[in-house]
Predict the structure.
Amino acid sequence: MSRAVESDLVERLLDGEHRALARAITKIESQSPGYRDIVSELHAHTGDASVVGITGSPGAGKSTLVDKLAKYYRDQGETVGVIAVDPSSPYTGGAVLGDRIRMASNVGDMDVFFRSMSARGQLGGLSTATADAVKALDAFGKDRIIIETVGAGQNEVDVVKTADTVVVLVQPGSGDDVQMLKAGILEIGDLFVVNKADMEGASRTVAELQEMIHLRDDPRANLDTGHHGADAFDDESADAEASDAPDDPLVWTPQVLETVATTGEGIDELVETLDEHRDYLDASGELAEKARKRAGEEIRQLLRSDVNRLLEAELDRRGGVDEFAEAVVEKETDPYAVAEDVLEPFRECLDGRDD
Amino acid sequence: MSRAVESDLVERLLDGEHRALARAITKIESQSPGYRDIVSELHAHTGDASVVGITGSPGAGKSTLVDKLAKYYRDQGETVGVIAVDPSSPYTGGAVLGDRIRMASNVGDMDVFFRSMSARGQLGGLSTATADAVKALDAFGKDRIIIETVGAGQNEVDVVKTADTVVVLVQPGSGDDVQMLKAGILEIGDLFVVNKADMEGASRTVAELQEMIHLRDDPRANLDTGHHGADAFDDESADAEASDAPDDPLVWTPQVLETVATTGEGIDELVETLDEHRDYLDASGELAEKARKRAGEEIRQLLRSDVNRLLEAELDRRGGVDEFAEAVVEKETDPYAVAEDVLEPFRECLDGRDD
């Protein structure tokens, strides 16, 4: 019965009903009963959308850029879905969503579908929910899907890795921003966009980014940190390498672009470079490789959260973790002995099989 | 046989042999075979040490402060163990350890036992290893144990939560540091120490910290963010509350202290306040409550990593995660169906029990 209801929802989603899409994503986000069957059914209909992830510090101009990008695609006759993820906020929907929906309705139709999602305190839950929501948009038939997320922590990195192409938005400034990028987000950026490029210091930020990409992609430069200063003066060769890259469709050197999202300046070049990266992913076989890696990660993530649920149920059946903790404090046992004890039935299950 | 070797190591550790202590911690850090039995055996001998965690940004002066603190305790005739944890470094031992060992030997004996540990890429592995190393030092008989860690990410928070008392070291400055503290570490600080208090801006940093503690501890102030500005002018009442706190042994308001670690200024007041916090923990029953919570967290952490190992073994037995991922990409199945499938033997066996 319930299964039939979900199949109906999936059918209406595949038929292009926006209300069914919205409902499916709500079920995914809240992990409502039956959401797994929905995602399972949708999976077979995915794989056609182009998925771009956009991240950057608060104030870098992400939402303006995303809006302009969405409008650009829309003007080309393509359909667009946007998922704005805020890992630091425990709230969902609300003001941000409301504003963006109004903005979207200015475009004049529902071909730009906006949706915000927020952290739910679950280990890895947000990246799974993002991946599932992307599947819903993909199966629905959106041509372009944009994942927008704030900041550069591990959660954001996990979220943005759901995309095929990762854009890191950087604000021109003192160079502090660029320094912060070293801490994780640099490795995953395919494109770096210096937004607000009309601000003072923009060209310096571009140069700094180019140097960091050079250091990142040249293992010799990376290892030879003693010659850091020399590398900085060696920018010409870095530029030469970078400009060579587009000639070879099997090699991708991260590009640094400049935009002024508020005026739309640089958006066409951004779109073009995004398409170039997509072509590179196709030609090099990395698109397929990324899909495999992502599938493996999704499987592992689901297994971890599912088995943790089994563990919690087993702990409860045995009197709850608090009782064990009390025994540990009283020196009647210790954490390793408890873990051994609680996991014994799990081990037995696996060892006791006939095959 | 192996078990006998480990019992011998434990025995020698409990007899006060520093080499056995060092070897036990090495086994804990590298998760060598038998390390679990060692920690299990040690557990019964723990609970007497006073454990302090110290965290702060690089350059805040952590190691100098820790060295001064260790020397102070040593001069009082107490024994000290220090574990310096660097979650961002994949390396262990090395230069930092070397320097600190030399410093320690200046103290003239082995009553200050220094040890550095680093990240090993394992989920939660570092906080488990830290907790286990603390147990080794505690069982050995160290009176004071100091856990020193860099930064304010989730890993650092997990590591420092192994301690009964958490000290957050702050460098005087533009207030940026204090702003960063909002992101997680503020909630866990029992003491805030503005080190390098002879630097310009120190008193402003102290005032900012006091305001933040006021906002944190007064739920009304927290919710009423519209009156943020007004709260800033309301500092007097915040100070009044803070200075009231020590009178009531059952309430703890985080204290803000000033030190100049290089000269030793403020160390005696820090020691005194640490003892006050310890007394508060004892009197309020929070020490016992913390021990229970920590034991629960240790159990959960071990269960999670152990069950993940079982899962990986099960995945390998079934052909490996890559094969499943390939099938997902080929649309022969989907991640939820795979998770369901791989977990079935666990579910079946747990459900099929007689009790």
About this structure: Chain A is about 60% helix and 10% strand. Chain A touches chain B through 53 residues (CB under 8 Å). The CA atoms of residues 142 and 283 of chain A lie 23 Å apart. Residues 90-99, 101-108, 221-245 of chain A have pLDDT under 50 and may be disordered.
